[in-house]
From TrEMBL, chain A:
Gene: modC
Coiled-coil residues: none
Organism: Plastoroseomonas hellenica
Residues in ABC transporter domain copies: 1-235
Pfam assignment, any one: TOBE
InterPro entries, alphabetized: AAA+_ATPase, ABC_transporter-like_ATP-bd, ABC_transporter-like_CS, Mo/tungstate-bd_C_term_dom, ModC_ABC_ATP-bd, Molybdenum_import_ModC, Mop_domain, P-loop_NTPase
Name of protein: Molybdenum ABC transporter ATP-binding protein
Keywords associated with the record: ATP-binding, Cell inner membrane, Cell membrane, Membrane, Molybdenum, Nucleotide-binding, Translocase, Transport
GO MF annotations, alphabetized: ATP binding
PROSITE patterns associated with the record: ABC_TRANSPORTER_1, ABC_TRANSPORTER_2, MOP
Lineage: Bacteria, Pseudomonadati, Pseudomonadota, Alphaproteobacteria, Acetobacterales
TrEMBL record, chain B:
All copies of domain ABC transmembrane type-1, residue ranges: 14-217
Keyword Aminoacyl-tRNA synthetase tagged: no
Domain of life: Bacteria
InterPro entries assigned: MetI-like (IPR000515), MetI-like_sf (IPR035906), ModB_ABC (IPR011867)
Keywords of the record: Cell inner membrane, Cell membrane, Membrane, Molybdenum, Transmembrane, Transmembrane helix, Transport
Gene it is expressed from: modB
Descriptive protein name: Molybdenum transport system permease
Organism, as annotated: Plastoroseomonas hellenica
Length: 371, 233
């Protein structure tokens, strides 16, 4: 388990950071927030590249930084792999020598995936003899991932690894990130301001704003809360983990099972049994007080209205629904809520207009096979 | 080796010049890298002063530099006296003195070039090396040094080329002794002072010119290769 508590004030611009969180076991903890919220500063402090004025960084009981007792382990002795936004490959070394740089410096007996395995995992075998200058942005970032992993780190830190890439390259690298997460079996701290990366990769979420932690917890739980800045986004909605049950190629549909029932979605490429994670956007969920009939929508789920919450927009409200054990958010106008006479505790029908798959290669569960 | 169209004395001056310039670069290279490092990365009081002192030979008349060396390294000087008493080393009026004077004069040139090379190294790459487990010496050797090597090379070539032509400091500190301290420019000067020496002066000037052009071309060629090797093409 990683425990982080940091306080730092920058003299130059007066920005002050006062943040603490934990990240347990293997899996991805995303530090999410707008630019300038301090998430990269936190990452630098955990890596040891920034020495905060006060704080502690403890991994599995070992303090790497503790200003109270004067402990400060330099980055080269922390064994935390870092993937930077701009790859930072050594330009004078070949791809292979870059990959081996950390491997050669890893302590004897440190375990982790081997060279061949990492090269195959990231699909960079054909690049080994090349120089970084001749690689595309996406290829560079894949090599940087391999280099960090081969250093046999105890923890992987990723500082917006996809932010410098265009949409096409991002889509190219993201599946590799998901595979790496599943293969590495390490705690990963992932800094991003892109919600689709959170959807695709994160198990836990630490929400940051202006140097403070607003909330931390499981991704699915946090996306169901209406009191966080996440809810104010256009794409606000609950993340739901589900399993592919069956395909109906003739009708062009895939049946997904989740905690509260089943969903029909346009045909998916994943084989039955695959784990997926999808986002049910609040503005794509409508409600009815009676079972609707003759509807073009496929997905009508029985739900209980748990709470009505403000949205921040005066004429709209969030409805917090429970579909079995799964929470769901719907965004409706105040007028509709009054017209239907909605009250907490009421039985409703939730109509799901569409389903957003963050990315083509989800794989949210750690026990599932890499896709 | 003597091409024949030079007198033995003239050929000696050419050889001596090359020797003195090479030795001066050998002497000043390591300290120059160290000083450049301190100037770029160092955070200590007196950094500005160090910067100014390093650049002194560029702005002070060379004769004054030669005089200063004479005062320091003369057999009664604060450095020259102990050298003479403890080791029996007399520097003044030797080819070593010529090399030392040349080294002092070209020192700011090397420092400037090495400094430019070091400033072009992205500290982010060194940070990446740290996170991969490389300690200070390790990452200097494997990341910083290779990436700043074009600067070191440029400094070496510039200092060598400039060293071939050093006059004022050498003649003051090492004197003008044929075969010992009479380098190319000193030989040219002597030739112009000798009746009927115009031909010799012309030949030596031509050699100076050829060496300078050759040095520049070599520097350009090596710089291009370096950039390719460092992946900045």
């Amino acid at each position: 388990m990683l425990e982080v508590a940091l306080r730092h004030r920058f003299a130059a611009d007066g920005f002050s950071l006062d943040a603490g969180f934990t990240a347990d076991g293997a899996g991805v903890t995303a530090l999410f927030g707008p630019s300038g919220c301090g998430k990269s500063t936190i990452l630098a402090a955990v890596a040891g590249l920034l020495r905060p004025q006060a704080g502690r960084v403890v991994l599995d009981g070992q303090a790497l930084l503790d200003t109270a007792t004067g402990i400060f382990l330099p980055p080269e002795r922390r064994r935390f792999g870092v993937v930077f936004q701009e790859a930072r490959l050594f330009p004078h070394l070949s791809v292979e020598t870059n990959l081996r740089y950390g491997e050669r410096r890893a302590p004897r007996g440190a375990t982790g995936p081997g060279f061949e395995e990492v090269v195959a995992l990231l699909g960079i075998g054909h690049l080994l003899a090349r120089r970084p200058a001749g690689l595309s942005g996406g290829e560079r970032q894949r090599v940087a991932l391999g280099r960090a992993l081969l250093a046999r780190p105890r923890l992987l830190l990723m500082d917006e690894p996809l932010a410098a890439l265009d949409t096409t390259r991002r889509a190219e690298v993201l599946p590799f990130l998901a595979r790496l997460r599943d293969a590495a079996r390490l705690p990963i701290l992932y800094v991003t301001h892109a919600l689709d990366e959170v959807d695709a990769l994160a198990d836990r979420l630490v929400l940051l704003e202006a140097g403070r932690v607003l909330a931390e917890g499981g991704v699915e739980a946090l996306t169901a809360r209406t009191d966080l800045p996440l809810a104010a986004r256009r794409d606000a909605g609950v993340l739901v983990g589900c399993t592919v049950l069956a395909h109906d190629a003739a009708r062009g549909l895939t049946r997904l099972g989740f905690g509260g029932g089943e969903l029909l979605v346009p045909l998916r490429p994943e084989p039955p049994g695959s784990r997926l994670r999808l986002r049910l956007r609040a503005r794509d969920v409508a409600v009815a007080t009676e079972a609707p009939r003759s509807l073009s929508m496929q997905n009508v789920l029985p739900a209980t209205l748990e709470a009505i919450a403000p949205t921040g927009t005066p004429h709209e409200l969030f409805l917090r629904l429970a579909v079995g054990p799964t929470p769901l958010l719907a965004r409706v106008t105040r007028d509709s809520a009054e017209r239907l006479g909605l009250l907490p505790g009421q039985m409703l029908w939730a109509l799901v207009k569409s389903v957003a798959f963050g990315l083509p290669a989800p794989a949210s569960s750690r026990d599932g096979p890499p896709s | 080796m003597n091409p024949g169209w030079l007198s033995a004395e003239e050929w000696q001056a050419v050889r001596l010049s090359l020797e003195v310039a090479s030795r001066s670069v050998l002497v000043s290279l390591l300290p120059a890298v160290l000083v450049a490092w301190l100037l770029v990365r160092g955070r200590f009081p007196g950094r500005v002063l160090l910067d100014a002192v390093v650049h002194l030979p560029l702005v002070v008349p060379p004769v004054v530099v030669g005089w200063g060396l004479l005062m320091l390294f003369g057999i009664r000087g604060p450095i020259g006296a102990p050298l003479n008493e403890w080791f029996g080393v007399r520097l003044v009026f030797t080819s070593e003195a010529a090399a030392l004077a040349t080294a002092v004069m070209s020192f700011p040139l090397i420092v400037r070039a090495v400094r430019l090379g070091l400033e072009s190294v992205d500290p982010g790459l060194e940070a990446a090396a740290r996170t991969l487990g490389a300690g200070p010496f390790d990452r200097f050797l494997t990341v910083t040094l290779p990436l700043m090597s074009p600067g070191i090379l440029a400094g070496t070539v510039t200092a060598f080329a400039a060293g071939l032509g050093e006059f004022g400091a050498v003649i003051t500190f090492a004197s003008n002794i044929p075969g010992e301290t009479q380098t190319l420019p000193l030989a040219i000067y002597s030739a112009t002072q000798t009746p009927g020496g115009e031909a010799a002066a012309g030949r030596l000037a031509l050699i100076s010119f050829a060496l300078a052009i050759g040095g520049l071309l070599l520097a350009e060629f090596v710089a291009r290769r370096m950039h390719r090797l460092l992946g900045r093409a």
